[in-house]
Structures are given as structure tokens and as C-alpha cells.
Amino acid sequence: MSQDDYYLDNDEKTVVFLMTSGPSTPHRCATPFYLGSILASMDVEVHIFFTMEGVKLMEKGVAENMVAMEGGKKIIDFIRDAKRAGVILHVCQPALPGYKIDESADIIEEADHVSRASVLADLILRCDKLITF
């Protein structure tokens, strides 16, 4: 199978990234947005669901001041690229109190939904691929 054959086999239509990484592991925080952008540009429905420490990436002021590697692009720029490509961003509502994040005041405008765990369960059950970071 040639490398080009991989691009022709695109039967997967929904991909969910479960993002638990956050500021304590910045080197893990750019790739889901980058891959999500690529997949969305290939007409794949892409959702990133932020839970555990991942919710910190959706807090105002965090991604704006964070890079995955020294001298690299800010995480907020990866987030904005993903949004422009059509990636849907969910913030886990039950995780917010543990990080003292107020869903009505502290979430960046790029987030599409503050979602309950039942939304994540539904996404997992109906997606073609689930990827965790």
C-alpha cells in the first residue's frame, strides 16, 4: 500500500479527541488541535472534549500564555486554527468546579459547549475513532 492509498481510505466520519492533558504537560497540548484541523479539513466531523486538567486549556489566560515547546506557537493559536477548520470544542462541566473555573465568566470564546458527561458518553458511542491525549 502506498502512502497515497492512505488518503483515499477515509471511511471514518467522526473523530473524538478526549483531552485530559493541560498546563502540567504542555508538550501534549498542541497535537490534538493540529490533527483535529487536518481531519476537519478532510470533511471529518471532529470533536475535542476537555476534561480533567484539560479544562484548564479552555480557561481565559491559560492557552494564551502557553506553548508546547520553547519558541513554538502559542496553544491559543492552535485552538483558533482548529476552530477555523471546523473542530467542535466541548468543556466538561463536572470538571470545572475542581479547577475553580466559572463556566459563565472564565471560559474562552472559542469553546462551543460546556457539556455534561452524558454528552461525552454519546460522542464515544457514536464516533468512528476515539483518541486520547
Structure summarized in a few sentences:
By secondary structure, the protein is an alpha/beta fold. It has 4 helices and 5 strands; from the N terminus they run H-E-H-E-H-E-E-H-E.
Task: Determine the N-to-C terminus distance.
Answer: 28 Å
Radius of gyration: 15 Å
Number of helices: 4
Largest sheet: 5 strands, parallel
Question: What is the annotated CATH architecture?
Answer: 3-Layer(aba) Sandwich
- Output the CATH homologous superfamily: DsrEFH-like
Relative helix content: 25-40%
User: What are the low-pLDDT stretches, counting only 5+ consecutive residues below 50?
Assistant: 1-8
SS strand fraction: 15-25%
Main sheet: strand order: 4-3-2-1-5
CATH level 1 class label? Alpha Beta
> Average pLDDT across residues?
93
Structure classification: alpha/beta
The rough form would be described as globular
Number of domains: 1
**Under CATH, the topology is which?**
Hypothetical Protein Ychn, Chain: A
Task: Please provide a written account of the structure.
The chain is 29% helix and 18% strand. The protein is an alpha/beta fold. It is globular. Residues 1-8 have low confidence and may be disordered. Pfam families: DsrE (PF02635). InterPro entries: DsrEFH-like (IPR027396), Sulphur_relay_DsrE/F-like (IPR003787).
